[in-house]
Structure formats: C-alpha cells, structure tokens
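[step 3/7] inverse_fold.run input=structure_tokens len=348
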C-alpha cells in the first residue's frame, strides 16, 4: 500500500514481485489530491525544477494511482487513502490461517507539499508557509499511523503482530522545510543526516517495551526478521544482506548485527567499519574520514591524520565492490549541497 518506487517495468511491479494486493503509485511521487486546487487541502509549490515537473505530471504516468495495476480515480487525501486501504487489508485477512505481511509505504511528507486544511490551521504559529505545510503533513501522517495502531488493537492483532516503523532517509534539506541538525547533511547525502534514520520495532511479549538498541542496523534486516517471524523458508541459492534482529534485541546474541556497512551511488562511495566511516567522490576527488563513536556529527575529518585507516578501508571497499553488478540505471543529476561552508555534489 502506498509508494512503490522499485521499478515500473512489468516484471518489477508489486503484482509480479510477490505481492497479492497493491494500491498506490509506482513512481517517486504523486499529488496528494486528484486536483491541483482543493478547498480542503493547502499546497505549497516550491520554486524549483523538480516542483515544476511534479505539478506538471500530476497523477499521470508513474504517478497515477493504481489498484492491482489497474488505474483508479482516487479522491481521498493520499495519506488517508493509504491508511484506510491498509486497515481494510488487515480486516480482510483477520481470520485467515496464514500470517499476512503488510508493506505500508506512505509518501508523506515527500514533495509536492500538500496538507489537509484542518491540519494546516493547527500550525498557525509557523510563519514560513513552506514549513507550515510540511509540519501539517507530518501531523496528519502521525494521526494516520495512530489510527492504524488503534484499529490493529481493536481487531485483536496487537499481541501477535510485529510492527516496523522506519524512514527511508533523512530529511530533504534541499526543500528548505527541514534539517537534520545536529547531524550533518540529509537525504541524498551519505553523511549521518542522510543515512542515520529513526527505527521503531514493536512486538508485544517478544521485544522489551521501551528498550533502546544502540548498535547500527540496516533496513535490509527487516526482511530477514519478518521472514523468520513468519517462518518462511527462503531460497538458499542467493545471498541475503539482512540478518534476523530478534536474537540481538532479546540479548540472546551479543555483538553487532553488522560489522561493516557499504554505500555506492554513482561517483559517491561510503563505508562504515567499527568506529570509522569514510565518504568520497571518485569524480570530484574529495575524501573524508570520521570516527563516528566520538564524532557522530562528522565535524572532524581525520583523512590527513589517519591515512592508514582510510587505506585499509578503501581496500576492503574495493574488494566488496568487485562482487557487485553494474547499476541498472544511471544517475539523473547531481544535487548541490553547501554544508559547513563546503560544496558537495550528490547524485539524485
């Protein structure tokens, strides 16, 4: 339910990727209403190239709303539509013998910025129109998730359902509506402000309520954990990047789920191993090294002070990279970021 953004070719859409039901759109964005203007929704159109493209596209092409690959006309505010469809799915699968898996991917608060007027009115203390609409979108999203959790409890699913709540990236600083301070950078960057995101996991009776787990994990781990909980027998002819988190969360397993993390996005490479993390551009010829354990806000570049650490990590990265396939799609463009007085270009 919601935003797919994992490919639009026929062999990549949800119905051909293991999902029994689908509702939402296939691309990166869609309008939150079926018309550009509505008395019930307040919009803020940003003065940039991307916004012009989004508003021109509207709900056409990959931004069209579909149900099981069939185009539909959806009049509800999308955040409400997605949560109502998700609740309907839970109700329909309530008494079936097999467990269900629901992937609910809200597009809020992604651009284009549109918020229900009642929520916009609640934030009249914010004088910046851009931020006011953005905050209202998040407020509406928060209520939608609350409604979903309440309904789950009413349906008697609360004690036997594991819930994952996660963001796909840090706040998009280039919108002018948010930042990730004191973390450095944001969406599209590989600084902590872009890749260190909120994650909440709840499973009553299995995960201690209110516990805080401070070891780094990956969104890949959610698949492995869900598969284990549902007792799915995964094919053994492939490599899985994620691990089952439950033994780590329960304390059954000590140590860290992952000793190393890698990122590669066109000319940008990044890696975290133990306390250290490097980020570099093979095209723009810059490299930075940080000790995340003592400098999680990435203020002190250790590249010149500890070149031996960087050299070892880059060798490990290159070894890992040799096992990768070439990307299936090129970068579209670079986004310019000015961070702490320094210019960076990250692929979009």
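[step 3/7] decode complete -> sequence:
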């Amino acid at each position: 339910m919601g935003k797919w953004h994992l490919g639009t070719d026929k062999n990549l859409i949800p119905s051909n990727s293991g999902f029994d039901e689908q509702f939402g759109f296939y691309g990166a964005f869609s309008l939150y209403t079926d018309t550009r203007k509505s008395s019930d929704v307040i919009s803020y159109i940003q003065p940039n190239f991307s916004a012009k493209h989004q508003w021109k596209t509207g709900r056409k092409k990959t931004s069209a709303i579909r149900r099981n690959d069939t185009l539909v006309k959806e009049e509800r505010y999308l955040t409400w539509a997605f949560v109502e469809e998700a609740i309907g799915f839970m109700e329909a699968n309530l008494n079936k013998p097999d467990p269900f898996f629901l992937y609910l991917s809200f597009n809020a608060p992604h651009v284009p910025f549109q918020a229900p007027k009642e929520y916009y009115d609640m934030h009249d203390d914010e004088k910046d129109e851009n931020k006011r609409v953005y905050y209202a979108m998040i407020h509406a999203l928060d209520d939608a998730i609350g409604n979903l959790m309440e309904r789950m409890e009413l349906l008697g699913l609360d004690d036997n359902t594991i819930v994952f709540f996660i963001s796909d990236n840090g706040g998009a600083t280039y919108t002018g509506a948010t930042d990730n301070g004191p973390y450095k950078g944001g969406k599209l960057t590989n600084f902590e402000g872009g890749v260190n995101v909120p994650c909440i996991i709840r499973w009553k009776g299995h995960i201690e309520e209110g516990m805080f787990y401070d070891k780094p994990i990956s969104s890949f781990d959610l698949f492995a954990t869900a598969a284990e909980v549902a007792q799915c027998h995964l094919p053994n002819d492939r490599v899985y990047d994620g691990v089952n988190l439950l033994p780590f969360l329960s304390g059954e397993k000590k140590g860290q789920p992952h000793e190393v993390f890698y990122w590669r996005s066109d000319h940008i490479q990044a890696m975290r191993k133990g306390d250290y993390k490097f980020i570099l551009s093979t095209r723009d010829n810059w490299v930075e090294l940080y000790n995340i354990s003592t400098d999680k806000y990435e203020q002190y570049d250790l590249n010149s002070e500890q070149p031996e650490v960087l050299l070892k990590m880059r060798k490990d990265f290159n070894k890992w990279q040799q096992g990768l396939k070439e990307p299936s799609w090129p970068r579209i463009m670079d986004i310019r970021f000015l961070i702490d007085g320094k210019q960076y270009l990250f692929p979009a």
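[step 4/7] annotate
The chain has eight helices and 14 strands.
The chain has a mean pLDDT of 95.
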